[in-house]
Specification:
Layout (H helix, E strand, L loop, with lengths): L5 H5 L6 H8 L12 E7 L4 E10 L2 E10 L2 H14 L4 H17 L10 H12 L4 H19 L8
Antiparallel strand pairs: 1-2, 2-3
Helix pairs in contact: 2-3, 3-6, 4-6
Amino acid sequence: MFSNDRNEMASANPYDDLVMDHIKNARNYRVLNDVNRKATGTNPLCGDEITVFLKVEGDALAEIAFQCTCCGITMASASIMTEQVRGKPTHDVTDLVQAVSGILSCARGRSSKFSSPAVEAILETVKRYPARMRCAALPWFTLDDILKSSAAGASGLRG
């Protein structure tokens, strides 16, 4: 039997509360003016575009932010990513980014080494909606590009 109750339809949200909170209240969604690393990534299949801004001080990721023209999953994933990596040593950030990127791109098993409820929420969303994998992965791949170019000696100021 079909229901016309709008409240019932509204409660049938496909994303969990944590992901929805990051979509509606994205953290670190802004331009950082005093950056020393920056890159832009795109998803050509849907048109999502994200710019990730970093301020690296010594061996730590002192500040991170992003701006995007993107869907909610890309927004939530970027918001979660910024919360997970800010203030951490770059080698820890690299490990986390590679672990999450690997899980997202290959649908491999979970990595409990860096598990957090927010990262798990994004991974669960991709598990339920595999077509959203590229959306969730875009911020992580863009950050990975910055870290790789920095390790190779490039300035990382691209985009």
